[in-house]
Amino acid sequence: MLPRPVVGVSNDGGKLTRSTGGRSVVARMTADLTIDAALLDMRSRYHRVRAAAFELGAILLQFRTLHRRWGESMSNRTGSVAQLGIVWVIFVVQMIGAGGVRAADGTTDAGTPVSSESAIPEIIVTAEKRSEDIRDVPLAITTATGQQLLTEGISDTSQLTKVVPSFTYQTSDYGTPIFAIRGVGFDDFSLGAGPTVTVYVDQVPLPFSVMTRGALLDIERVEVLKGPQGTLFGENATGGAVNYIAAKPTANFATGADLSYGRFNDGTVQGFVSGPIAEGLTARLSAQVERADGWQQSNSRPSDTLGRKDFANGRLLLDWKPVDNLGIELNLSGWRDRSDTQAGQFEAFTPSSPPAPINAPVYAALQNYPVSPSNPRAADWDANQSYRRGDHFYLASLREDWSFTDDFTLSAISSYSHYDAHTPLDADGTAYPDLFIDKNGLLTSLFQELRVAYAAGRIKWMLGANYQKDRIDEVDTDIFYSSNVFVGPYYFPGGRFLDTENVRTTSAFASLDYQLTDSFNAQASIRYSDQKRAFAGCFGDLGDGKAAAAVGLLSSILSGTPTTVAPGSCLTLSTTTFKPLPIVVSNLDESNVPWRMSLNWKAAADTMFYASVTKGFKAGSYSVPAAVLDSQLDPVTQESVLAYEIGFKAWLAGGRAQLTGATFYYDYRNKQLDGHVLNPIFGPLQQLINIPKSRVLGSELELTLRPWESLRISSGVTYLDSRVEDNPLPPAQPRDPLGNLIDYTGESFPNTPRWLAVTDSEYSFPLAGFKGFLGGTATYRSKTNAAFSELPLFRIDAYAVLDARLGIESPNAKWRVQLYGRNVTDKYYWTGVSRNIDTVIRFAGMPATYGIEGSFLY
After folding, report:
1. Rounded to the nearest 5°, which phi and psi values hold at 560?
2. What integer pLDDT is reported at residue 608 of this predicted model?
């Protein structure tokens, strides 16, 4: 920097002072040096950001090259696990070489000192039912802290799409949530549908997806485990598992709260109180209340809204240590949901029956019904109906951990969960009552697990067993003034679906972890499961005798003898005699042996490669369609998957970068997917089918960067290529939602985008003695189809959603206030498409919302 001109010189008390416009040169030079240091720091940060950008670009190019090579090898069937492993090793070695390995003087290649504050913090997970550093676990895992979920506005499992790139969510036709990981999901409208992604709270299962609504209350972190998890977590985890870790009671008194208010008068208050209550006994009480006005607007009645939120949630945790080597944890939790269900957006009138005098009112009402605007708030529903839920959930669990020696630990988990549902919804997207559904049910689950674990020297092993007893009682009342509900002169605008199931599952499992050398580790695990499922159900008359008269006529025609059916009776006919059955009774007894083997190599202290082969199973299931024939109530049998996976985990640049990746191939047998069958009365209806052979291949990459202490960037991308390789076996026929015969071979799984991506970043800066921050989250999903078919009506377009936040935090992180915007571009997108009898509807994502949120800790 050039010296500034000297304006004057004076001698003051023996001190030589130079002045430049009235200011001392010393002061000016000090200011100049401060400015120069700031400029140099900004320049250094600029170069580091640019270097990180180039590094990220190189990573993505390498990832693209890797996937291309791998895809070619798989398509040619010449690739092997060893070949894929070599490709991954080369890829990670190149990334480590480009990632700024720490020099001997403790600096990176950019010359920036490595700081422990700027390094990515250590993450401890319980993915293998023991506490371990995530760097030592040979599984693909994505984690997020409770604070991160609060900051990003994630309050429900369905919103994990914002942090897990391979996680997807949709709502079934009857409102049941459907979770998928890596394209592996399960679409069924029954309350008791078994998932492919099972959710746990502190390893306590929530066996049905409808039970997960309140699982995110006051949590420490979430662990999303990708790939089949059947050996340690049991059946129905072929896609993966989500394990929430609740925030535990504290040894000292602590309290905190989070309050938010936003568009549509959306207000949330949640908080906790924690601390000791006696010697060795601590407690934590958490509570949450959410309220909001309706966000959907009726197309036919502009002043009418839907989508009100009314949700309350609570949990009490008690931790007791009567002696040093024994810990006991009691969890009492529950929630109630009185929120509105979501209405679909009308897209098309697709009648199930041709026009006739008896269904003329349906054609008159819907043939020229206006298509819903491309506006997320626009929808329609029947007037003078309540769409308020009446759902309640309760959970009680008890866990004991006894370390009876330094090497052995005995653990026992007991739980009972209870879910009571009343879920009304409009399923046709119009103000005409083509289909109104009132779903009612009761789900209970009793779970018991006992296991012993040993860890000493090079060996870790675990032995355990568990027992689960589930009860499913479901009664769906449907009102349908549709085109197809008549036989001869009898028109019946309603019916009832009955489903009762008793399920008992007994399992035993074992795992072994052996350190072969200082660098190589081998793992193996296995489980035996036996499930007995008893079913009783039917399609029945509402009690007014209208459906009974119509089915009685149908039975008379098909059987050749007159048939009379009493009002309120079951209407399902025998496939052989075509006479009504009092009820359909069936049993499904299945057993399976999932297993997993992996070999892991620690190439360096912060770099791991792993290769695994896993066999997983999903239990068989009953669906509850409008079953005119008892064959429609035949269950789908259990599916199996043989999963090959190779992955790596690397911590680079002195802990400032975390890079993980995996490539996987899933070979499925009897995959349970949503197909369509022809019903003698109703025409094409949704029904579960087994696909004899199918597969999923894909790759994923996740990167977390801390270029400096004030900037964090997390990004992830997943590529999925799913394919049906065989059509369903007779008597099932491959049909599209409109009933047309098609060929499923070569089609992708429904609701399985090829590309999924997530990125989140936050930059913090000094602000008047406090810490300011600016952040945002972007999610992307490529196009997909909602059902088997190439019909444009069932396409789900690609979309990207952007969230943003701006706020201030105290220096000690005790309080935080932020302004937030979600879907700030007001992007119109939809997450599902359904055809219900006569109409095709879309389920739109939320419009732009914005508000303020504040939290504090004491």
Report:
1. 85, 0
2. 93
* Selection from 830, 836, 787 nearest residue 430 by Cα: 836
What token pair was written down for 152? 């990003």
**240-246/197-201 β-pairing:** parallel
Q: How far is CA 323 from CA 248, 284, 320, 402, 451, in A?
A: 19, 20, 9, 10, 20
- Block residue for tokens 């609701």: 751
Helix (H, G, I), strand (E, B) or coil at 571: coil
3-state secondary structure of 373: coil
Distances (CA, A) of 507 to 465, 468, 523, 643, 671: 5, 9, 20, 21, 22
Cα separation, 412 vs 179, whole angstroms? 28
* Helix (H) or strand (E) segment spanning residue 552: helix 546-559
Residue type, 531: Q
- Residues 422 and 452: beta-carbon distance below 8 Å: no
C-alpha closest to that of 171 among 851, 801, 831, 837: 831
- Residue 53: exposed, middle, or buried by beta-carbon count in 10 A (0-12, 13-18, 19+)? exposed
The pair of three-digit structure tokens given for residue 192, joined into one six-digit string: 């008791």
175: left (phi over 0), alpha (psi -120 to 50) or beta: left
Read off φ and ψ for residue 211, nearest 5 degrees. -80, -5
Q: What residues contact residue 1 under an 8 Å CB cut-off, 6+ apart?
A: 32, 36
State residue 506's pLDDT score.
96
Output Rg (C-alpha) for the chain, integer angstroms.
30
| Distance of alpha carbon 707 from alpha carbon 54, whole angstroms | 13
Give the tens place of pLDDT for each residue, 104-150: 333 443 334 444 455 677 777 777 777 888 888 888 999 999 999 99
159: nearest Cα among 801, 673, 775: 801
CA max distance for the chain: 128
SS3 339: coil
Question: For residues 431 and 449, what is the distance between their CA atoms, to the nearest angstrom?
Answer: 50
pLDDT tens digits along 410-428: 999 999 999 999 999 999 9
| DSSP string of 627-691, one letter each residue | -SBGGGGPPBPPEEEEEEEEEEEEEEGGGTEEEEEEEEEEEEEEEEEEEEEEETTTEEEEEEEEE
Low-confidence ranges of the chain (pLDDT < 70): 1-119, 175
- For residue 808, give the nearest of 770, 857, 777 by alpha carbon: 770
User: Three-state SS for 705?
Assistant: strand
CA pair distance 377, 372, nearest whole angstrom: 10
Partners of 645 in the β-ladder: 612, 664
Tokens of 522: 């081998």
Q: What is the pTM of this model?
A: 0.85
Q: What is the DSSP string of 474-526?
A: EEEEEE---TT-EETTEE---EEEEEEEEEEEEEEEEEEEEE-SSSEEEEEEE
Residue 14 has a pLDDT of 38
DSSP string for 263-288: GGGEEEEEEEEEEEEETTEEEEEEEE
Residue 126 CB coordination number (10 Å): 16
